Amino acid sequence: MLALRGRLLALADRLVPPQAAVFDQSVGIARTQMLATVAELGVADELAEGPATAEELASRLGVNADALHRLMRAMSLSGIFKLDRSGRFTLGRSGQALRSDHPLSVRDWARYFASRSNSDAWADLTETVRTGRSAFPRVHGRSVWQWFAEHPDEERMFAGGMRAGTLQDVPFIVGGYSWPDAGVVCDVAGGVGTLLAAVLDARPGLRGVLVDAPGVLAEADGWLAGRGLRERVELTEGDIFRSIEAKADVYLMKNILHDWDDEACATILRTLRAAMPEGSRLVVVEYLQERNEANLIASLSDIQMMNVCDDGRERSAEEIQALFRAAGLRPGRVVRTGGPGLVEGLA
Ligand SMILES: C[S@@+](CC[C@H](N)C(=O)[O-])C[C@H]1O[C@@H](n2cnc3c(N)ncnc32)[C@H](O)[C@@H]1O
Fold first, then answer.
1. For position 83, which CATH number holds?
2. Residues 88 and 234 in one domain
3. Which end of the chain is more exposed for a tag (fewer CB within 10 A), N or C?
4. pLDDT exceeds 90 at position 3
5. 216 lines ligand 1 (CB under 6 A)
6. Closest Cα to residue 331, out of 275, 258, 282, 264?
7. Which residues form the domain of 162?
8. 63 part of a folded domain
């Protein structure tokens, strides 16, 4: 989907002078911030009730009517809102995705991405390229994960954004792999359990174990209960660098290795390997990045990993398999889907 959009945008850029295309790209920060502001204020939720003027919305939201009108007018250019000649706004087709009740809502993600901690790290990208080291620890004096532990509101926005992103990938992951009908699947650093829940929904005979940090597990407790899955999932506190106490037939690790450099990945995989019974499998789920092939999702995500995570990177299947071998796992199948790739390691 995004790849097609990217190709169409690249095609559109060929119709205008290069400086116009680059100028438009250079103001991306304005779009990021405008989206975050309407997401934070809950404008899309207000408009779900029906068309309204900025004055009406502003009195409900407690903000300045003129500023809101100007913001929403600018955002009508990209289809988030529609503005009629009488000054009434409606939610545009893409604006629907900013509603909190949209099944794949981007509201949390938009807020997280523009958060000061993330944008301050992005502002230091040049230094990241000079040094090859991630900006986030340099700018904030701690890793992004430590930051989240100290800023639970931001952690919730990030987790909400991850949840929506994972839900988009679920059909590829659940449909792309031969999940067993019975036994135990463990999602390592699985967030609130979005992917684990989808796998358990698809295989009613499976049980689950969810490993993550305590704050995230507390959130998972309520989330899984709301999905009617709490009874089938054991919540296990674990530190992927120290110890994972979970016995399973299949271990999942989605969007984890890309957060870290090769050395840290080796520690994570060795920690997991120590927990894995002989004959069990690990399925690493990541957007695969070939060295000399730009990919609309993987190549941009790679910059977020390089700049904001701990010297993280997107990798090819072969690079992930090399990490497996170093940790004592035998490479198994590689499944390439229309979304992320699934790379299997055998214990
Ligand atoms: C990028 S999120 C991925 C979440 C989930 N796998 C998904 O794809 O939606 C990374 C996860 O790693 C967890 N995490 C980070 N450091 C960890 C650690 N040392 N031990 C356990 N979990 C950790 C975070 O709490 C977060 O849930």
1. 1.10.10.10
2. no
3. N
4. no
5. yes
6. 282
7. 118-346
8. yes
